[in-house]
User: Fold this.
Amino acid sequence: MTNKIYLSFHILSGIYAGACLSIAVIDLKFIQALSDVSLKIQYFSILLKNMGFLMAPLLVLMSILCLFLTWQNRKKIFVYCPLILLFAILLITFTIHFPINDQFFNLTVSKNEVHYLINKWIYWHYLRVLLSFLLPFFIVKYFKQILN
Assistant:
């Protein structure tokens, strides 16, 4: 069973990393290219809602699987590395992205703040992309040891 959980966690982390990269190089570039602030608000809000349908369940599933694998092997200190990396991703998501997302969802963002908030969101998303690409490598490096 641990092998299946390990494999599932590894696959999901790869899907998450790919989705993060796709958002960074395609969707966010489109948003940045828009010159009309009203369109930026409209399209960024739509983008955030659509992303949430994919990214939120992935983060929940990865968190559950990571916690399970970490708990099963809690006496081995190295297994905490993927959990710490996943925690950093969650921290960015909950403390930076969700508050900005709420402003766009509720249309409480002023036109003066749009560029600043989108750029802030993008900056932190690029960090999340980096962390999400490190996660599969951390999973292999640290969790594969428990399977041998």
